[in-house]
Design brief:
Blueprint lengths: L1 H21 L11 H4 L2 E4 L2 H4 L8 E6 L7 E3 L2 E3 L4 H15 L3 E11 L1 H14 L1 E9 L14 E8 L13 E4 L5 E2 L2 E2 L3 E3 L2 E6 L4 E2 L21 H11 L5 E4 L6 H8 L3 E6 L2 H14 L8 E2 L2 E3 L14
Parallel strand pairs: 1-15, 2-5, 2-14, 6-13, 8-17, 14-15
Antiparallel strand pairs: 3-4, 5-7, 6-7, 8-12, 9-10, 11-12, 16-17
Length: about 325
């Protein structure tokens, strides 16, 4: 009885919090200005909201749509489509969002390997496709008759050849296993109190990011939540402070949270009301917890290096 009472109390508190946070959800039923949506979580379907958004205001679009998989998003079901139907659906999404982009905008599109095959030609038809990043989630279901699937893709695209990219902001700090010296001095690495390290240029294979797990402050029950560290790399590489980031499939709010932590403007669109509240709750918490796990001292650190990192603060 005590356990059941505790669970019911949690549900009551949860609903009370949803009721409170719901008052801060933004609705876009008519054309809006940039000032109307800065820092806002918009409740609604992108197919209804997009036409009311301003034109040419987005510096960076982070697009993490449902992959072509059947999945339950807290009561909003996305059913796997045949290939042509998914292509058509994705193409419609892209056409809705293109008017919001600046001519210098960057577009990042998340997908799994199956979805990548479907969307690549569409991206190439509308954007300059520069690369495909593949990141190792570290987790994945085992398979007896296939290779375990534990990677996802991020397509790096731009509207034109005139775009912003700051490679120095996303270098990875790695421990040097076999340090090389010239005349007794370190070559391309530094001797530090906790070891020998090198800042390396980022590649399109990311092995330093884990999906959020239960002990991480950023973790939610969203089934496809992206890590803050991953989104931070995209934002730092392709935007400056004050730039505007749009996430039309916001989910539990990772893009919004990271954008605020990194002093960027943002708005996000999410069809599920409860997810909107999760995002708003995370934005509230961000005021007292501005840390991005895996990003410290102005650089990204390799996986499993928390004890080696300095006191973490944003720069």
């Amino acid at each position: 009885m005590k356990q059941r009472a505790s669970r019911n109390q949690t549900l009551v508190c949860k609903q009370e919090e949803i009721d409170r946070l719901s008052t801060d959800i933004c609705c876009v039923d008519n054309p809006v200005s940039i000032e109307d949506i800065i820092g806002k979580v918009i409740a609604g379907d992108i197919f209804n909201v997009a036409e009311n958004l301003p034109k040419g205001f987005v510096d960076c679009l982070i697009l993490d749509p449902p992959y072509n998989l059947s999945k339950n998003y807290n009561g909003n079901f996305f059913k796997e489509k045949d290939k042509n139907s998914y292509r058509k659906w994705f193409h419609q999404v892209i056409e809705l969002l293109i008017p919001t982009l600046k001519s210098t905008a960057t577009v990042y599109v998340c997908s799994d390997w199956k979805t990548s095959v479907l969307i690549a030609p569409i991206l190439e038809a509308h954007f300059h496709v520069h690369n495909r990043i593949t990141w190792e989630r570290e987790k994945g279901r085992g398979a007896k008759s296939n290779w375990k699937n534990n990677t996802e893709d991020i397509w790096f695209c731009t509207v034109s050849d005139d775009y912003y990219f700051d490679v120095d902001s996303v270098k990875l700090k790695r421990r040097v296993i076999a340090p090389y010296r010239v005349n007794g001095k370190p070559k391309d690495w530094n001797e530090e109190e906790k070891g020998n390290y090198r800042l390396t240029y980022p590649s399109n294979i990311w092995t330093d990011i884990s999906i959020p797990f239960w002990s991480m402050p950023e973790n939610t029950d969203h089934p496809t939540q992206k890590p803050e560290k991953l989104i931070a790399k995209l934002i730092l590489a392709s935007t400056k402070k004050g730039d505007f980031i749009l996430d039309p499939f916001l989910g539990s709010g990772t893009t919004a949270v990271v954008a605020r932590k990194l002093d960027r403007n943002f708005c996000g669109i999410e069809i599920n009301k409860e997810y909107c509240c999760w995002a708003l709750k995370r934005l509230e918490t961000n005021a007292s917890d501005p840390i991005i796990q895996g990003y410290a001292d102005g650089v990204f650190w390799e996986r499993n290096s928390l004890t080696e990192q300095p006191t973490r603060k944003l720069h």
